[in-house]
Recover the amino acids of this structure.
Protein backbone atom coordinates (compact mmCIF):
# COMPACT_ATOMS: atom_id res chain seq x y z
CA UNK A 1 0.00 0.00 0.00
CA UNK A 2 1.75 3.16 -1.12
CA UNK A 3 -0.66 5.75 0.28
CA UNK A 4 -2.60 5.66 3.51
CA UNK A 5 -6.01 7.33 3.71
CA UNK A 6 -6.96 6.79 7.32
CA UNK A 7 -3.65 6.96 9.19
CA UNK A 8 -0.53 9.14 9.31
CA UNK A 9 2.79 7.39 9.59
CA UNK A 10 6.15 8.84 10.56
CA UNK A 11 9.45 7.87 12.09
CA UNK A 12 11.33 9.72 14.84
CA UNK A 13 14.75 8.19 15.36
CA UNK A 14 14.16 4.51 16.16
CA UNK A 15 10.45 5.05 16.92
CA UNK A 16 7.65 4.46 14.42
CA UNK A 17 4.49 6.54 14.99
CA UNK A 18 1.08 5.57 13.61
CA UNK A 19 -1.65 8.20 14.08
CA UNK A 20 -5.28 7.24 13.48
CA UNK A 21 -6.71 9.96 11.26
CA UNK A 22 -10.45 9.85 10.69
CA UNK A 23 -11.38 13.00 12.65
CA UNK A 24 -14.84 13.17 11.09
CA UNK A 25 -15.71 9.84 12.77
CA UNK A 26 -13.65 10.21 15.99
CA UNK A 27 -11.21 7.70 14.48
CA UNK A 28 -13.85 4.95 14.25
CA UNK A 29 -12.17 1.77 13.07
CA UNK A 30 -13.40 0.83 9.61
CA UNK A 31 -12.04 -2.00 7.48
CA UNK A 32 -9.68 0.26 5.56
CA UNK A 33 -8.19 1.73 8.74
CA UNK A 34 -7.61 -1.78 10.11
CA UNK A 35 -5.80 -2.84 6.94
CA UNK A 36 -3.67 0.30 6.98
CA UNK A 37 -2.70 0.08 10.67
CA UNK A 38 -1.65 -3.52 10.19
CA UNK A 39 0.38 -2.74 7.04
CA UNK A 40 2.19 0.14 8.76
CA UNK A 41 2.84 -1.84 11.94
CA UNK A 42 4.17 -4.83 9.99
CA UNK A 43 6.52 -2.61 7.99
CA UNK A 44 7.91 -1.12 11.21
CA UNK A 45 8.09 -4.57 12.83
CA UNK A 46 10.50 -5.96 10.25
CA UNK A 47 12.57 -2.76 10.04
CA UNK A 48 15.77 -3.16 12.11
CA UNK A 49 15.90 0.65 12.35
CA UNK A 50 12.69 0.67 14.43
CA UNK A 51 12.78 -0.41 18.09
CA UNK A 52 9.31 0.65 19.28
CA UNK A 53 5.99 1.71 17.77
CA UNK A 54 3.51 4.29 19.10
CA UNK A 55 -0.14 4.07 18.13
CA UNK A 56 -2.12 7.23 18.85
CA UNK A 57 -5.20 9.21 17.84
CA UNK A 58 -6.26 12.81 18.42
CA UNK A 59 -6.76 14.85 21.58
CA UNK A 60 -10.50 14.18 21.33
CA UNK A 61 -10.44 10.49 20.50
CA UNK A 62 -7.98 7.64 20.37
CA UNK A 63 -10.83 5.76 18.67
CA UNK A 64 -14.58 5.80 19.39
CA UNK A 65 -14.97 2.16 18.45
CA UNK A 66 -15.52 0.03 15.41
CA UNK A 67 -17.32 1.97 12.66
CA UNK A 68 -21.00 1.62 13.56
CA UNK A 69 -22.13 2.96 10.17
CA UNK A 70 -20.09 0.28 8.40
CA UNK A 71 -21.40 -2.51 10.65
CA UNK A 72 -25.07 -1.50 10.94
CA UNK A 73 -26.37 -3.17 7.74
CA UNK A 74 -24.40 -6.40 8.14
CA UNK A 75 -25.94 -9.74 9.07
CA UNK A 76 -24.57 -12.75 10.89
CA UNK A 77 -23.45 -14.45 7.68
CA UNK A 78 -21.51 -11.34 6.54
CA UNK A 79 -19.75 -11.03 9.87
CA UNK A 80 -19.07 -14.76 10.16
CA UNK A 81 -17.94 -15.47 6.61
CA UNK A 82 -15.65 -12.41 6.54
CA UNK A 83 -14.51 -13.30 10.06
CA UNK A 84 -14.99 -9.60 10.82
CA UNK A 85 -12.46 -8.09 13.28
CA UNK A 86 -10.09 -11.08 12.96
CA UNK A 87 -7.55 -8.94 11.10
CA UNK A 88 -6.85 -7.16 14.39
CA UNK A 89 -5.50 -10.43 15.83
CA UNK A 90 -2.57 -9.96 13.45
CA UNK A 91 -1.62 -6.75 15.25
CA UNK A 92 -1.14 -8.78 18.42
CA UNK A 93 1.45 -10.81 16.47
CA UNK A 94 3.65 -7.75 15.85
CA UNK A 95 6.76 -8.46 17.92
CA UNK A 96 8.14 -4.93 18.26
CA UNK A 97 6.91 -3.25 21.48
CA UNK A 98 3.73 -1.30 20.77
CA UNK A 99 2.70 1.67 22.94
CA UNK A 100 -0.82 3.11 22.86
CA UNK A 101 -0.80 6.87 23.58
CA UNK A 102 -4.45 7.46 24.43
CA UNK A 103 -6.29 10.78 24.76
CA UNK A 104 -10.06 11.24 24.74
CA UNK A 105 -12.44 8.42 23.85
CA UNK A 106 -11.10 4.85 23.76
CA UNK A 107 -14.41 3.05 23.44
CA UNK A 108 -15.41 -0.36 22.15
CA UNK A 109 -12.91 -1.32 19.47
CA UNK A 110 -10.86 1.74 20.51
CA UNK A 111 -10.39 0.37 24.02
CA UNK A 112 -9.72 -3.06 22.55
CA UNK A 113 -7.13 -1.65 20.16
CA UNK A 114 -5.35 0.09 23.05
CA UNK A 115 -5.35 -3.22 24.93
CA UNK A 116 -3.84 -5.08 21.95
CA UNK A 117 -0.85 -2.76 22.44
CA UNK A 118 1.77 -3.75 25.01
CA UNK A 119 1.28 -0.78 27.27
CA UNK A 120 -1.05 2.18 27.47
CA UNK A 121 -0.01 5.71 28.39
CA UNK A 122 -3.12 7.79 29.00
CA UNK A 123 -3.77 11.52 28.95
CA UNK A 124 -5.80 12.85 31.88
CA UNK A 125 -8.84 13.21 29.59
CA UNK A 126 -8.77 9.59 28.38
CA UNK A 127 -11.94 7.54 28.82
CA UNK A 128 -12.07 3.80 28.40
CA UNK A 129 -15.12 1.64 27.95
CA UNK A 130 -16.83 -1.27 26.23
CA UNK A 131 -20.25 0.25 25.43
CA UNK A 132 -21.16 -2.34 22.77
CA UNK A 133 -24.07 -3.66 24.84
CA UNK A 134 -25.85 -0.34 24.31
CA UNK A 135 -25.78 -1.10 20.57
CA UNK A 136 -27.15 -4.61 21.00
CA UNK A 137 -23.79 -6.34 20.54
CA UNK A 138 -20.81 -7.41 22.64
CA UNK A 139 -17.07 -6.71 22.19
CA UNK A 140 -15.52 -8.39 19.16
CA UNK A 141 -11.86 -7.37 19.16
CA UNK A 142 -10.90 -9.16 22.38
CA UNK A 143 -12.34 -6.72 24.94
CA UNK A 144 -14.14 -9.27 27.10
CA UNK A 145 -10.87 -11.21 27.42
CA UNK A 146 -8.15 -8.55 27.62
CA UNK A 147 -10.15 -6.18 29.87
CA UNK A 148 -10.90 -9.03 32.27
CA UNK A 149 -7.23 -10.00 32.40
CA UNK A 150 -6.20 -6.35 32.90
CA UNK A 151 -8.65 -5.20 35.58
CA UNK A 152 -10.26 -8.39 36.91
CA UNK A 153 -13.74 -9.85 36.69
CA UNK A 154 -15.67 -7.43 38.91
CA UNK A 155 -14.87 -4.23 37.03
CA UNK A 156 -14.73 -5.87 33.59
CA UNK A 157 -18.12 -7.47 34.10
CA UNK A 158 -19.58 -4.17 35.25
CA UNK A 159 -18.18 -2.30 32.25
CA UNK A 160 -19.15 -4.91 29.65
CA UNK A 161 -22.65 -5.37 31.09
CA UNK A 162 -23.52 -1.71 31.70
CA UNK A 163 -21.33 0.08 29.16
CA UNK A 164 -19.99 2.33 31.92
CA UNK A 165 -16.81 4.18 30.96
CA UNK A 166 -13.75 4.64 33.14
CA UNK A 167 -11.59 7.76 33.44
CA UNK A 168 -7.82 7.76 33.22
CA UNK A 169 -7.23 7.84 36.97
CA UNK A 170 -9.48 4.82 37.63
CA UNK A 171 -7.92 3.05 34.64
CA UNK A 172 -4.44 3.49 36.14
CA UNK A 173 -5.60 2.42 39.59
CA UNK A 174 -7.23 -0.66 38.05
CA UNK A 175 -4.14 -1.74 36.12
CA UNK A 176 -5.40 -0.94 32.62
CA UNK A 177 -2.90 1.83 31.93
CA UNK A 178 0.77 2.12 32.79
CA UNK A 179 0.79 5.85 33.45
CA UNK A 180 -1.43 8.95 33.32
CA UNK A 181 0.12 12.18 32.09
CA UNK A 182 -1.13 15.74 31.42
CA UNK A 183 -2.81 15.85 28.01
CA UNK A 184 -0.30 18.38 26.66
CA UNK A 185 2.57 16.01 27.49
CA UNK A 186 1.08 12.81 26.09
CA UNK A 187 3.18 12.49 22.94
CA UNK A 188 6.40 13.67 24.61
CA UNK A 189 5.97 11.12 27.39
CA UNK A 190 5.00 8.33 24.99
CA UNK A 191 7.99 9.19 22.83
CA UNK A 192 10.35 9.19 25.83
CA UNK A 193 9.11 5.72 26.82
CA UNK A 194 9.32 4.48 23.23
CA UNK A 195 12.85 5.88 22.86
CA UNK A 196 13.92 4.18 26.09
CA UNK A 197 12.65 0.84 24.75
CA UNK A 198 14.09 1.45 21.28
CA UNK A 199 17.53 2.14 22.76
CA UNK A 200 17.63 -1.47 24.00
CA UNK A 201 18.55 -4.40 21.80
CA UNK A 202 15.65 -5.03 19.41
CA UNK A 203 15.84 -8.84 19.55
CA UNK A 204 16.09 -8.77 23.35
CA UNK A 205 13.10 -6.40 23.64
CA UNK A 206 11.17 -8.76 21.35
CA UNK A 207 12.09 -11.71 23.58
CA UNK A 208 11.05 -9.74 26.68
CA UNK A 209 7.67 -8.94 25.11
CA UNK A 210 7.22 -12.58 24.12
CA UNK A 211 8.06 -13.70 27.67
CA UNK A 212 5.51 -11.40 29.32
CA UNK A 213 2.81 -12.39 26.83
CA UNK A 214 3.37 -16.08 27.59
CA UNK A 215 2.00 -15.31 31.07
CA UNK A 216 -1.45 -14.89 29.50
CA UNK A 217 -1.41 -18.22 27.71
CA UNK A 218 0.14 -20.79 30.06
CA UNK A 219 0.39 -22.21 33.57
CA UNK A 220 3.00 -20.67 35.90
CA UNK A 221 5.35 -23.66 35.58
CA UNK A 222 5.15 -23.67 31.78
CA UNK A 223 5.59 -19.91 31.70
CA UNK A 224 8.67 -19.97 33.91
CA UNK A 225 10.09 -22.79 31.77
CA UNK A 226 9.49 -20.81 28.57
CA UNK A 227 11.01 -17.68 30.13
CA UNK A 228 14.15 -19.61 31.06
CA UNK A 229 14.58 -20.89 27.48
CA UNK A 230 14.12 -17.33 26.14
CA UNK A 231 16.62 -16.06 28.74
CA UNK A 232 19.14 -18.67 27.59
CA UNK A 233 18.64 -17.68 23.96
CA UNK A 234 19.62 -14.06 24.81
CA UNK A 235 23.14 -15.46 25.24
CA UNK A 236 23.28 -16.23 21.52
CA UNK A 237 23.16 -12.50 20.68
CA UNK A 238 25.90 -9.93 20.19
CA UNK A 239 23.91 -7.55 22.36
CA UNK A 240 24.17 -9.79 25.44
CA UNK A 241 27.96 -9.65 25.13
CA UNK A 242 27.89 -5.88 24.62
CA UNK A 243 25.44 -5.25 27.48
CA UNK A 244 27.44 -7.23 30.01
CA UNK A 245 30.90 -6.07 28.87
CA UNK A 246 29.68 -2.45 28.92
CA UNK A 247 28.53 -2.90 32.52
CA UNK A 248 31.90 -4.33 33.53
CA UNK A 249 33.74 -1.55 31.64
CA UNK A 250 31.52 1.04 33.38
CA UNK A 251 30.27 2.57 30.11
CA UNK A 252 26.85 2.75 28.40
CA UNK A 253 26.11 -0.19 26.08
CA UNK A 254 26.17 0.33 22.34
CA UNK A 255 23.71 -2.26 21.08
CA UNK A 256 23.93 -3.45 17.49
CA UNK A 257 20.32 -4.72 17.72
CA UNK A 258 21.50 -8.15 16.54
N1 LIG B 1 -18.67 4.62 14.38
C1 LIG B 1 -19.01 5.48 13.41
N2 LIG B 1 -19.10 6.81 13.59
C2 LIG B 1 -18.84 7.29 14.82
C3 LIG B 1 -18.49 6.46 15.88
C4 LIG B 1 -18.40 5.05 15.63
N3 LIG B 1 -18.04 4.18 16.57
N4 LIG B 1 -18.31 7.22 16.99
C5 LIG B 1 -18.54 8.49 16.62
N5 LIG B 1 -18.85 8.53 15.30
C6 LIG B 1 -19.19 9.71 14.51
C7 LIG B 1 -20.57 10.25 14.85
O1 LIG B 1 -21.56 9.52 14.17
C8 LIG B 1 -20.45 11.67 14.38
O2 LIG B 1 -20.58 11.71 13.00
P1 LIG B 1 -21.63 12.76 12.32
O3 LIG B 1 -21.04 14.11 12.67
O4 LIG B 1 -21.55 12.43 10.86
O5 LIG B 1 -22.94 12.53 12.96
C9 LIG B 1 -18.98 12.02 14.70
O6 LIG B 1 -18.31 10.78 14.83
C10 LIG B 1 -18.83 12.77 16.02
O7 LIG B 1 -19.48 12.02 17.04
P2 LIG B 1 -20.57 12.65 18.05
O8 LIG B 1 -21.30 13.76 17.38
O9 LIG B 1 -21.38 11.52 18.58
O10 LIG B 1 -19.58 13.25 19.16
P3 LIG B 1 -19.88 13.46 20.71
O11 LIG B 1 -18.71 14.23 21.23
O12 LIG B 1 -21.25 14.02 20.90
O13 LIG B 1 -19.89 11.98 21.35
C11 LIG B 1 -19.04 9.75 21.71
C12 LIG B 1 -18.70 11.22 21.38
C13 LIG B 1 -19.56 9.66 23.15
C14 LIG B 1 -17.73 8.97 21.59
C15 LIG B 1 -20.10 9.23 20.74
O14 LIG B 1 -19.69 9.53 19.41
C16 LIG B 1 -20.31 7.74 20.81
O15 LIG B 1 -20.98 7.27 21.73
N6 LIG B 1 -19.74 6.95 19.85
C17 LIG B 1 -19.96 5.53 19.76
C18 LIG B 1 -19.17 4.79 20.83
C19 LIG B 1 -19.44 3.30 20.74
O16 LIG B 1 -20.55 2.84 20.95
N7 LIG B 1 -18.40 2.51 20.39
C20 LIG B 1 -18.51 1.08 20.23
C21 LIG B 1 -18.70 0.73 18.78
S1 LIG B 1 -19.04 -0.99 18.52
C22 LIG B 1 -17.56 -1.76 18.58
O17 LIG B 1 -16.53 -1.16 18.78
C23 LIG B 1 -17.61 -3.24 18.34
C24 LIG B 1 -16.36 -4.01 18.72
O18 LIG B 1 -16.31 -4.67 19.74
C25 LIG B 1 -15.17 -4.02 17.93
Amino acid sequence: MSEFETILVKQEGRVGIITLNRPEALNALNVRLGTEVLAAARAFDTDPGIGAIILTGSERAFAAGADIKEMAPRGFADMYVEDFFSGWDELARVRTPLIAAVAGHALGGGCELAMICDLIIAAENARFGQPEIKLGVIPGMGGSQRLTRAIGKAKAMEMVLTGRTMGAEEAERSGLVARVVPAAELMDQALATAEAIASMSKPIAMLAKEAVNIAFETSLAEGVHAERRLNHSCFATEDQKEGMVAFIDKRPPNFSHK
Remarks:
- The pocket of acetoacetyl-coenzyme A is lined by residues 25-26, 28, 64-69, 85, 105, 107-109, 112, 131-132, 135, 139-141, 143 (CB under 6 Å).
- The chain has a mean pLDDT of 97.
- Residues 73 and 79 are 10 Å apart (CA to CA).
